[in-house]
Amino acid sequence: MPKLSAAYATTTLQRPLVATDIVLFALRDDALQVVLIRRAMPPFAGKWALPGGFVLPDETIDHAAKRELAEETGMRIAGEYLEQLYTFGEVRRDPRARVISVAYLALMHGEGAEPRGGSDAADATWFAIGSLPQLAFDHADIIAYALQRLRYKLEYTNVLYAMLPEHFTLPDLQQAYETIMGAALDKRNFRKKIISLGFVKPLQRWTQPEKGRPAQLWKFTKREPVMVKTFVTKAGG
Amino acid sequence: MPKLSAAYATTTLQRPLVATDIVLFALRDDALQVVLIRRAMPPFAGKWALPGGFVLPDETIDHAAKRELAEETGMRIAGEYLEQLYTFGEVRRDPRARVISVAYLALMHGEGAEPRGGSDAADATWFAIGSLPQLAFDHADIIAYALQRLRYKLEYTNVLYAMLPEHFTLPDLQQAYETIMGAALDKRNFRKKIISLGFVKPLQRWTQPEKGRPAQLWKFTKREPVMVKTFVTKAGG
DNA sequence: ACAAAAGTGTTAATTTTACACCCATGG
DNA sequence: CCATGGGTGTAAAATTAACACTTTTGT
């Protein structure tokens, strides 16, 4: 194996370290929530933070993200959604050492998904986006960035498949959009739009509500990321 | 300063290293071109690669990107455009060691901007996107990703300000779009669109061409990133 | 029959597309 | 007056936005 350049080798003891932080969102109790852990170790011991940790030498960054999430919260991103967000590299973002963190956006459906602390996490639980505690490091920035990205993605992808159960009603789906976007949508226009995009298809099944008319159940046509076919300006003349 | 956890400290000698690679695009000779360097050192000595290098302990990643670009090519990203793209972390992407690379997208206007080799670069020059040489590492993937990102950005931002001179004609601007998107656009519709977006404003100056009618000069209203005000679904009902 | 929630259609406004000729200049 | 490239408008089509009543069920 060829050696690294002499110039870089001399700085070896102060190289930046590489970590990953995961913003795992789910819809719970009609709110967008994120999993946080209570840090067991300094710095910021006792403070809430995103799950995450250092990337090991023989794993990809994606793998580190999934592993740390599982270790610290018990949550697994299986058929759900995991996407690299951004790499945060301010020099003093971690008081211990120079740590560069590759942040991830993860989505899952949150009903019945209870995190449990583990590893470096004294505790782990969901927080609604609107009532986050004070956070360690630059994790508030990371969450804000993740939320912005999620909102953009809702506009032109089907990523919501990861946040809803396999079968759902259109009012459920609309509720999910509204909760995440923080805005009310017109029911008729919403339905027309979402159906015409082809993201969802109806089942021959209906809910059995205690009150009100039963709602038809739908499913996503694909449970993998699909983009709207925008983004091709037209030719001509 | 608090210490890192014992578990992580034991892996200290094989921590991932952090580098940055820069995809610097410019429009030259009616083509989208990218700066490549010829590697002076192994691995891939003699092969073409993106400019880039390791992140030093006391600099941000953005800074490392600018510094390495300057060292290896002599090019400076001043009032231009620099954006973090994606972090590439496959375990064996660098045969020397575990190297994680934070890739950047940089844009500048390329007329009269001649790179020169330096530092670890035996040579540095522009290549048209359509005729790239064989590339070291996963740099072909990185360029492909950067190109995709640039094309998306053209659709909803004014980033082209970084790739055009301060004053330009609308045919120049259209040509730039077409070159990057790889598609022809209708002249009248293009003008209506770009003007209605408010990205550009006309000057009271005209070109003095050798042939044909003089063209009016325009400038960008803002020489900083601005997004189209899309991305807000409407409320109601 | 009432309360609750689901479902449905039409019109106006806006945006996007298609398309062809006239204008200003230099040689 | 010709060649070259710049500049312009309008109508059709598609998309988006606004908006209110009827249906189904359980009690």
Please, could you describe this protein's structure?
Two copies of one chain form a homodimer. By secondary structure, chain A is an alpha+beta fold. Chain A has two domains: 15-152, Alpha-Beta Complex (Nucleoside Triphosphate Pyrophosphohydrolase), CATH 3.90.79.10; 159-220, Winged helix-like DNA-binding domain superfamily/Winged helix DNA-binding domain (Arc Repressor Mutant, subunit A), CATH 1.10.10.10. Chain A has five helices and ten strands; from the N terminus they run αββββαβββαβααββ. Chain A has helices at 6-9, 61-73, 139-156, 170-181, 187-197, and strands at 17-28, 31-39, 48-49, 52-54, 81-88, 99-107, 121-128, 168-169, 200-206, 216-220. In chain A, strands 1, 2, 3, 4, 5, 6 and 7 form a seven-stranded mixed sheet that branches. Chain A has a three-stranded antiparallel sheet with strand order 8-10-9. In chain A, strand 2 and strand 3 form a beta hairpin. The radius of gyration of chain A is 21 Å and the shape is elongated. Chains A and B meet through strand 5, helix 3 and helix 5 of A and strand 5, helix 3 and helix 5 of B. Chain B binds a DNA duplex (27 and 27 nucleotides) through residues 169-171, 186-189, 191-193, 207-216, 234, 236-237.
